[in-house]
């Protein structure tokens, strides 16, 4: 089945509901005749000394080789002496930009109905340096590191993204009135890059004010670019505007042309593999589930865009959005009672 | 006029629209027979070497003596060699907790209609340490400092506040999954204090998730307590839910029983002292303005609560809320066309 026309992509189904929503993506991709061959990798059962985490070295090699992958949720096993799975992937694959398009889903009502923005988060440094220590008893400090290299890199990507996606404005989010050196350097880099894109409007907005404006009127923003922690906060806030992390795609851009799409919601072990009452009574499915695969499907769509498989991307995105808009087959988190299988079938029906 | 029955309070009218909204507070207080005598202090015209800022030493002494004050917006003059006015006040007066009650204003419609929470922000350390330096060219770092002393102090205040204000739950906002030492210490202190308040439910919520939950359903929260920067972000986000900083009161609690109420919005130099067309044509007022004094009035109400002048506090708050709810005399920022003077008069009419 491995023909030379197929693009190989790494698939991390992840844990919890991960395998169930990954199954949905595989089904939809195959129904849509997407020329992708999955190379599946699971989280290891013990710490791999080469990665210091449960992420196996082989799986990293797979992404490095394929340059493209899709990842379900991974819960970091509790215990000492290993790194968070998500952070391991970011560090080892140098996933420097986390891109999250965030738009209101037609027919799925929230308090906001015209959200259409993209958050681009620096994903490797800042408050995530891991450098912390106790100065004296009762006094601890964490280091926030900002480098010119990483700031330029993510700023470049943000403007490149804006330009190639027909976006008109890039807003750099910061707190340089307080952190003049770190956030100041970040802004300086954004300004340098902005000069090379005169057709894109560039502006700066303080994070506290940004959050206030986002909840008052998110249409004020187009592309937002920011250091790591602000990106963590603002991307989740934005997801909340349109319904939550179960609905928002995410794509990580890494050095060397790597792109790893990712559902950023949790692995929801409480519903993973659960059979709904409906299914038990009808006994139609041996294994069916309650999870919503939308975030992973739309992340897979981001991956297809990245691969320039625009037709397939649009076709799948349309089918997902139509299924949600129609409202007949929604999963429980969206107030419906469809199983993952039923929801997936409905999407395939709309392809 | 200085009788021993009067409580002396320091008043910083501030700059920009500050004097105009302070005037509104003075009028309302006097109409409501509030037993307060104001001791007015203005920002200096040059840097006071004892404070290293435009805040004068005398004004700080006034707050220290009176233990209570009210502050309008202060824009930090541009230039080197001095500290931000707001930060100077926080540091010099050891204003360790910033308390912002945030509730939907009856009759003033936003996307949210049942917000009722309080954010309590650690106000002296964390990301605001001011400690930053360049490691090598292109690499800068900022230090976030968390101490046991300041964390316990703000946690104590949060639980004390919850208990004395009939609140049921305190949520500590953090990012201890990433900053295990700093935010970890903050949480540890919150947990210690929580044990002393078994009647108050205690929970912990990661900041990104907190922001998402706040925009989806703010009624999930009651009292939120957090380190400095998270407080900065979340308190502005919450203000956005109910209409913006022009509507939200703020009270700073300092060591030694000091309380400094404060309007946290900007000084809006663009509308300060402006006369609306209406006023020009009627020529009724020599000086009238467009600013909304609500945030300063409600901050003054917080100050009265702090002084246990509950009746006066309730009376003024009711009058402000009634005036806004009625909608006849709203200032421009709320979509109305009333001047500050007219709005203030309407409030006095409702006392
Ligand atoms: C789980 C956590 C470490 C992670 C982060 O903070 O980056 C998550 O919030 C995310 O946004 O992917
Ligand atoms: C003006 C700025 C320094 C200040 C802060 O960050 O604390 C402001 O945002 C606030 O919340 O009072």
From TrEMBL, chains A, B:
<dbReference type="InterPro" id="IPR024084">
    <property type="entry name" value="IsoPropMal-DH-like_dom"/>
</dbReference>
<dbReference type="GO" id="GO:0006099">
    <property type="term" value="P:tricarboxylic acid cycle"/>
</dbReference>
<keyword id="KW-0809">Transit peptide</keyword>
<comment type="similarity">
    <text>Belongs to the isocitrate and isopropylmalate dehydrogenases family.</text>
</comment>
<dbReference type="GO" id="GO:0005739">
    <property type="term" value="C:mitochondrion"/>
</dbReference>
<keyword id="KW-0460">Magnesium</keyword>
<keyword id="KW-0520">NAD</keyword>
<protein>
    <submittedName>
        <fullName>Isocitrate and isopropylmalate dehydrogenase family</fullName>
    </submittedName>
</protein>
<dbReference type="InterPro" id="IPR019818">
    <property type="entry name" value="IsoCit/isopropylmalate_DH_CS"/>
</dbReference>
<keyword id="KW-0560">Oxidoreductase</keyword>
<dbReference type="GO" id="GO:0000287">
    <property type="term" value="F:magnesium ion binding"/>
</dbReference>
<feature type="domain" description="Isopropylmalate dehydrogenase-like">
    <location>
        <begin position="8"/>
        <end position="347"/>
    </location>
</feature>
<dbReference type="GO" id="GO:0004449">
    <property type="term" value="F:isocitrate dehydrogenase (NAD+) activity"/>
</dbReference>
<dbReference type="GO" id="GO:0006102">
    <property type="term" value="P:isocitrate metabolic process"/>
</dbReference>
<dbReference type="Pfam" id="PF00180">
    <property type="entry name" value="Iso_dh"/>
</dbReference>
<dbReference type="GO" id="GO:0051287">
    <property type="term" value="F:NAD binding"/>
</dbReference>
<keyword id="KW-0479">Metal-binding</keyword>
<dbReference type="InterPro" id="IPR004434">
    <property type="entry name" value="Isocitrate_DH_NAD"/>
</dbReference>
